[in-house]
Write a structure and sequence with these properties.
By secondary structure, this protein is an alpha+beta fold. The protein has two domains: about 45 residues; about 50 residues, no CATH class. About 50% of the residues lie in helices and about 30% in strands. It contains two helices and three strands, in the order H-E-E-H-E. Strands 1-2-3 form a three-stranded antiparallel β-sheet, covered by helices on one side.
């Protein structure tokens, strides 16, 4: 593979990576807006004419080592709770 081809692939990769970053930033902005709407309505569900959204909390426990005795797992594992968004396209009525 020649250098020009490598550069072309890497340039496209960088472009895709920057586009993903921009889209993730936009999604975070909309998630904050959705959180504000949910908070103002004191609910975890919203529905419009075309879409509905439901927020739930997920909890994950993780540890970087795979094979640990249960005592070590119980002592050193970390638990993380975070929001999960499920967007559903509603069928036309």
């Amino acid at each position: 593979m020649d250098i020009a081809r490598i550069d072309d692939i890497l340039e496209k990769y960088e472009l895709a990576r920057s586009q993903i970053k921009e889209l993730e930033e936009r999604m975070d902005k909309y998630k904050r807006k959705i959180d504000d709407l949910l908070a103002s309505k004191n609910t975890d569900k919203l529905s419009g004419n075309k879409y509905s959204i439901k927020r739930s909390m997920n909890t994950r426990t993780y540890l970087s080592k795979d094979d640990l005795p249960k005592e070590l797992w119980a002592k050193y594992s970390s638990t993380c709770t975070f929001p999960v968004y499920r967007l559903s396209k509603l069928s036309k009525v």
